[in-house]
Amino acid sequence: MVKGLRHTGHVSIDWVFARRVVLLSIALVALAALAGCSLPGYSTNPVQGDNWYNFGNNEDATYQDELNKQPVDYDPRIVKITPSLIRYQQKQRAEEKLPAAERALTAPNDTQPYHIGSGDVLRVIVYGQQDLNDPGGSNGSSESAGQVVNADGNIYYPYAGEVHVAGKTPTEVRRQLTQDLTSVIRDPQVDVRVMEYRSRRVYISGDISKPCTVSLTDVVNTVLQALDECDTLSSGKSANSAAPATGVQNIVLIRNGKSTFLDLNQIYAAGNPVPLKPGDRLLVDDSANRVFMMGEFNEQQALSFSTGGMSLSDAISDAGGLNLDSANPGKIYVVRGFISDQSVAAGHLKTVMRPDVYKLDMGHASGMLLANEFQLRPRDIVFAAPASLVNFNRALSQVTPSLNIILQSLLLYDRAGN
After folding, report:
1. DSSP label at residue 326
2. Which of 102, 107, 281, 304 is surrounded by the fewest CB atoms within 10 Å?
3. DSSP one-letter string for 351-371
């Protein structure tokens, strides 16, 4: 009886221990489910409807007191990607025109003759006068082949002395020298050429390997010509990106302190090049050529926007496709920009943020066809929502290592006690 009682008591101790382990496991799993929302980046609530986004409240969290007093309204618009939307966007693209600021820059300019400036190198030729064309018998060496216009805008020429040439065209300088040489040469035949253009320049910087300077010549110089002459763009890579570039598309033209954004694809598709002026600065803005792939993709990354455009299906493919283990193909979103409107209401400034959120169901073949037709824009954010149980599984994976340690400790304690 005593042995039986002891045996029964031993069995009851093992049963109590096993029961405690099971209850502890259940409690930890329940704790993981309840605490999942508190883990960084995880929420146990499944994505329902279009409520995955949260733009905060109506207050500005800034250090400026005046800005803190300005109310901000967030009013995102959810639009389903349907065949009707595709047709509407195609019609919009067909009717799309250049903004007024860009049209003003692409207006055709009258061709103006080149005006000489300080730093230019001129070559003056007087036909039949070897001593003037090759003074000192240098046989046309580089030292005597040209004359640099000095800081005062002058050059020195035999029998003519100091000649002011800055601000004049080569034709005007030729006429002046012809008149000055008439007193020493009968019927002089003079020609003036610009050998090196140094006085008028355009500066190019931004997302390139090294800033460069391009000289403007006597022909019409455009943005595309200047970019073509910039050797630092030949590498085809951005200065701060290891990914291969798809070509320069976005330029900020800074002229007289005013900055104008230029979309080169639109400008040259319209057939209106942008002529440059001396002192213009071109800022290559490669950062604007990005599409951001976020959420349940196999590769979350920023994609370079293709020169010929990019469809939603192209972007998904470049990101390695959807993660079939965690993504919800029925909830693909494209977040397009924040349009900031400022209005005065009751004497106060009010800012309204209205992003467009496009939703696509790729759970069936028709959704894939729509994705192939939906055209993205630079700076779009493509978000693939997670499936319902993904966040819970992620939260549980954070708790599982701790659960294993506790169970192993209990087993070791029980063995040591026995």
Report:
1. T
2. 107
3. EEE--EEEEE--SSHHHHHHH
